[in-house]
Each structure stands twice: as structure tokens, then as C-alpha cells.
Amino acid sequence: MKMSRKIAAAASAGALLLTGGLTAAANAGTTAVPAAVPAVDVQPHPETVVAQNRISVGASADAVKAALAKCQADQLPFVTVALVDRFGTVQALLRGDNAAEHTIEAAQQKAYTAAAFGTPTSELAKRINGNGPSIADLPGTLFLAGGVPLKVNGVSVAGIGVGGAPDGKLDEACATAGAEAIAAKAAGTAK
């Protein structure tokens, strides 16, 4: 029995070497290398290119810091704050001391939900009635209070969300403080 296993193993190894050698030989043939495709330079034009506003890295960092500072001042150090662009990509994330892991996802989902719908998640939560499929079933969204949209000229470009407080109203107050930090920074530079 031991001998047949050794023979089978040797046969497998030989077959593998043979197969590998044939593959290498086939790949070494005279296959034409495709010519490089030149890049196409598309000029910015309203019919072909969409301009996109984003919150800067500095403003994003300031916003999550301000939101977490508000929560800490309210004796809520165990929250996570996330700022995402309107597509849900994280721009900045700050996890407070002792914040549980689930608060990371909650903050991101609240931020994305607010950004995608351009409405605070506390308002969106009121639209959920529990009768069959609804907007609450959309992947990556969370319809609980704590997400605030960030808008430029009335268009949602990002969202800030907080997860982990014992009440969504507390999460929303912290997210609002973060959003206000960006507004204050923009107002200060506009003077």
C-alpha cells in the first residue's frame, strides 16, 4: 500500500512536470505581442466630463475631529466618526477610545446614506414603514439617526456619520458638529 502511494505520487509529479514543460513550450512560441494602445486625451467639456466637488483631506480630518470632540464633551468617547464621499469611499475615519468594532461600519453606512440621499438619516428613518421591501434594504445603507449630508451649492458631495452612542440623536448632534466645522472653515476662508 505504501509502495502504491509512492508510485502514484511520483506519477503525479511527473505529469505535473510534463504538463508544465508543455505549457512553457507553448507559451514560448511565436505569439504576436499586441501593440500598445495609445491613451486618448479627453478635453474637459460639459458633454463628456463631469466636474466633481470633494471635501479636502484637511477639512475631512477637521470634521471628524470636531465630531469626536463633541461626543467626548458629551461623555460619549466610545463612538466612531466617518466622513465619506457621495460614493461611500472613506475620506476620514476616527475611532474613539473603547469604540466597538461595529461602530466603524455603522458610522460609514450612516455617512454614505446621508451623502447618497442628501438628507440626514434621522429624516430618512422616518420614511421606513416596515411593510415589505424599502430603501432600507439597499446595500451599504443604514437608516438610523447619526448621518448628515455635506452639500456644495445644494448638491450632496459627502456625508459624515457617527455610530456608537446610546441614542441616534446623540450621534446626529456629533455629526452635525463635524459638518459645522467644515462650514465654519469655509466661511472663514471666504472672508
From TrEMBL:
Pfam families per UniProt? HbpS-like (PF03928)
Q: What is this protein called?
A: Heme-binding protein
The record ties this protein, via Gene3D superfamilies, to:
Haem-degrading domain (3.30.450.150)
The secretion signal range is: 1-24
The answer on whether this UniProt entry bears the keyword Lipid biosynthesis reads no
Keywords carried by this UniProt record? Signal
Q: What is the native source organism of this protein?
A: Arthrobacter oryzae
Q: Which InterPro entries match?
A: GlcG_carb_metab_protein (IPR052517), PduO/GlcC-like (IPR005624), PduO/GlcC-like_sf (IPR038084)
